[in-house]
Amino acid sequence: MTDNIPRFDWDLSLSAVVSSASTGSDAIGAIEFDPSGEILATGGIARKIRSYRFSSWLGSSSRDDRVESCICTPAKLSSLKWRPDLTGRVIGSGDYDGVVTEYDVEKGVPVFERDEHGGRRIWSVDYTLHNGSVIGASGSDDGTVQIWDPRNGGLEKTVRPGGGVAAAICSVEFDPFGGPLLAVGCADRNAYVYDIRRIVDPIVVLDGHTKTVTYARFMDQHTIVTGSTDGSLKLWDIANGRRVVRTCRGHVNSRNFVGLSVWRHGGLVVSGSENNEVFVYDKRWEEPVWVHGLGQAERLGCDRRELKFEYIDE
User: Where are the WD repeats (predicted)?
Assistant: First the structure.
């Protein structure tokens, strides 16, 4: 604990429950706010992308009143990410068949597709704006990160972290502050940071977890948060090599993707837990500042039980 930092109380409470499930077979595996923070999209094993107007969850008592659109997809979904460049509602998805598909949410139709992972499951998709162009990345069970330009559909780069050893890629995230970095979480117990201007070798290898790194998220331009099935979250100072700033424990995570997100403006990290609770950590302390139970755990009927959370900066 860092005792010399003045501590204040967070006033956290549950405001709404986002649930598309009418049965136990409709588990949510991905949840994403659009750039405006008003539209929320969910996807999962039911092979549907549902979008909601977030404000409706705070005022409507009917689930049907909240649904803005619903798109049926050909495969189970593991990842969603809104494209950052368009005024229209275009969202990218990664699925269990190893395909990245972009959908026009307003029209409910696919507008772009790429299949570069040999049918192996995609775990994570992300986008960035770089030199005026949109660049996409996808990470898969095939042990590769594919980096590509959706405008022309051409494959730009194939990255194989870990010296070519085919360990599953669990997480990809571009620097959300506009920098040229890409963070990758890998089943070989490491996270990697690449400079997309010259992807040859990683510029930083974050070696400190004892099991699969399921998430790698930027807290700020110099700090990355990683989550692992070793039951810990680690904050890394990437400006000074691979120094661990903080290790947070409390949540339960030994085998599943439990979800991890950050509220960068507030300096908070949120994680799911295999005991069906939500844990919120302040980046300054190792212990959680808020824990909330989600009720009786249910059998979800899938091999990827996940809780995913997103914050809106206000």
Answer: 137-158, 206-246
